[in-house]
């Protein structure tokens, strides 16, 4: 069962904020609906999935006239065979994502990543896309399966609340490679991770882009990882089990550390740009509303 602090991430206040954000985005974007696209396939399935607005050229036989009688708007019935976008949301649940600085009570990187995953799923489901979620660390741990329609958001929250047991290691190549090999349709992969893999990030992300997926990486890091306040004689312990290191952290070493973190981030950003992959850098103390309303628009996740 999920711990109480896990379920509180998606309490009534969070859901209210999420709906306010959606309405704000709707006003900002002036009704731009990425997922309202028609399929040229006939489609054998007649299973109802959702509705969308009628556009010129649609088959009038699929208009729901009962809805028109109530709200005087032409709405099309969608079936499971309607052309849509697969949106895969992959959340890194490794030990480094669960880490918090000693003595702090704030949210972990994983807490924010799960809230952002919920927001991305919510917006995608409202756009009538098919949404699937995965947890990963050293391998793929859990998957929700693809779902569609606004009612599926309850299943999204149920999945995100149920964290897998903690695992020490991160292995992007294994986990994202297995995901890539399992996919049969083109789509959009949203990866939420700190990318702290000793073997590097390149092979893991390449396994996604090499499978005809458009990739957007959301790198989430803690402010203390980027700009540490600790100084003096320190014992550094790798939370993913790679050992300990005793150091004396003077101003010169701390400055060099900051430069290494900046270079690490710039390397990932450059790698993504060269492969037409999206990239967002997010600090775990960032305002949720600011990330969704400002960063997501800036980085092209919503438009």
Outline:
This protein is an alpha/beta fold and 303 residues long. It is built from 11 helices and 10 strands.
Layout of secondary structure:
Blueprint: H1 4-7, H2 12-28, E1 48-53, H3 65-71, E2 75-79, E3 86-92, H4 95-98, H5 109-126, E4 130-136, E5 140-143, H6 153-161, H7 172-182, E6 187-193, H8 202-209, E7 213-221, H9 223-226, E8 232-237, E9 244-249, H10 251-274, E10 278-283, H11 288-298
Parallel strand pairs: 3-4, 3-6, 6-7, 7-10
Antiparallel strand pairs: 1-2, 4-5, 8-9
Helix pairs in contact: 5-6, 7-8
What string, H for helix and E for strand, traces the elements in order? Answer: HHEHEEHHEEHHEHEHEEHEH
> Any guess at the CATH architecture of the largest domain?
3-Layer(aba) Sandwich
Could you state the CATH homologous superfamily of the largest domain? von Willebrand factor, type A domain
Number of helices: 11
Distance between the termini: 37 Å
Tally of strands: 10
General shape: elongated
Low-confidence stretches: 1-5, 30-46
What integer is the average pLDDT? 81
Oligomer, anyone? single chain
CATH topology of the largest domain: Rossmann fold
Structure description:
The protein is α/β, with parallel strands linked by helices and 303 residues long. It has two domains: 4-26 and 84-298, 3-Layer(aba) Sandwich (Rossmann fold), CATH 3.40.50; 36-79, no CATH class. Helix content is 39%, strand content 21%. The strands form three sheets. Strands 5-4-3-6-7-10 form a six-stranded mixed sheet, sandwiched between helices. The two termini are 37 Å apart. 30% of the residues are buried. The model is unreliable at 1-5 and 30-46 (pLDDT under 50).
């Amino acid at each position: 069962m999920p711990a109480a602090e896990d379920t509180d991430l998606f309490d009534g206040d969070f859901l209210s904020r999420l709906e306010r954000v959606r309405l704000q985005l709707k006003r900002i974007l002036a009704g731009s609906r990425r997922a309202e696209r028609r399929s040229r396939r006939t489609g054998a399935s007649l299973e109802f999935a959702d509705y969308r607005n009628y556009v010129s050229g649609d088959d009038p036989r699929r208009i729901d006239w009962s809805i028109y009688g109530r709200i005087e708007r032409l709405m099309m019935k969608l079936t499971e065979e309607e052309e849509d976008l697969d949106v895969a949301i992959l959340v890194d649940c490794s030990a480094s994502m669960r880490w918090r600085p000693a003595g702090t009570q704030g949210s972990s990187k994983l807490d924010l990543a799960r809230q952002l995953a919920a927001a991305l799923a919510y917006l995608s489901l409202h756009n009538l896309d098919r949404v699937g979620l995965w947890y990963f660390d050293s391998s793929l741990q859990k998957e929700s399966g693809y779902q569609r329609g606004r009612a599926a958001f309850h299943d999204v929250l149920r999945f995100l609340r149920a964290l897998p047991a903690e695992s020490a290691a991160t292995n992007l190549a294994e986990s994202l490679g297995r995901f890539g090999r399992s996919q049969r349709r083109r789509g959009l992969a949203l990866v939420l991770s700190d990318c702290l893999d000793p073997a590097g990030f390149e092979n893991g992300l390449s396994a996604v882009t090499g499978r005809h997926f458009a990739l957007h990486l959301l790198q989430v890091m803690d402010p203390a990882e980027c700009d540490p306040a600790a100084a003096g004689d320190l014992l550094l312990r790798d939370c993913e089990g790679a050992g300990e290191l005793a150091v004396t952290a003077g101003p010169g070493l701390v400055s060099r550390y900051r430069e290494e973190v900046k270079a690490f981030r710039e390397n990932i950003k450059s790698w993504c740009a060269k492969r037409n992959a999206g990239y967002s850098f997010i600090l775990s103390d960032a305002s949720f509303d600011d990330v969704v309303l400002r960063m997501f628009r800036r980085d092209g996740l919503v438009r």
